[in-house]
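ARCHIVE CARD
CATEGORY: sequence design from structure
SOURCE FIELD: tokenized fold
FIELD CONTENT:
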């Protein structure tokens, strides 16, 4: 649903509601005309305020879109560089850990050869 259609619906509903209330109250013709005029003026002011606020929102969205198009590529590139730097810094440590794991596995295999095997329990 478009915003303009939504606002037109709200405006129509407000006019119909206000007209119904004004015409169903027991007032003289001049009082009704005066009330309708003041209500109409208030409604026009509120509608004008709503239009200004919507225009501000539209401008804000346009600015945000523009800013995000500029900032996102920079942020993505910076993130890629950080990941590459982290990988290069941790690569030697990863290799060292892998070497230590391999030596622990070899030591365990040697210990398994040296130590006597546990006796099986007869069933």
């Amino acid at each position: 649903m478009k915003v303009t259609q939504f606002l037109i619906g709200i405006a129509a509903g407000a006019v119909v509601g206000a007209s119904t209330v004004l015409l169903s109250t027991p007032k003289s013709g001049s009082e009704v005309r005066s009330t309708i005029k003041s209500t109409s003026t208030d409604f026009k002011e509120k509608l004008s305020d709503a239009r200004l606020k919507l225009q501000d929102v539209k401008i804000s969205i346009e600015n945000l879109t523009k800013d995000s198009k500029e900032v996102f590529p920079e942020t993505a590139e910076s993130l890629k560089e950080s990941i590459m730097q982290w990988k290069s810094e941790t690569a030697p440590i990863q290799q060292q850990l892998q070497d230590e794991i391999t030596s622990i596995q070899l030591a365990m295999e040697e210990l398994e050869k040296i130590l006597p095997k546990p006796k099986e329990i007869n069933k």
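CARD ANNOTATION: The first helix runs from residue 3 to 24. The radius of gyration is 39 Å.
SHELF: design records, drawer C
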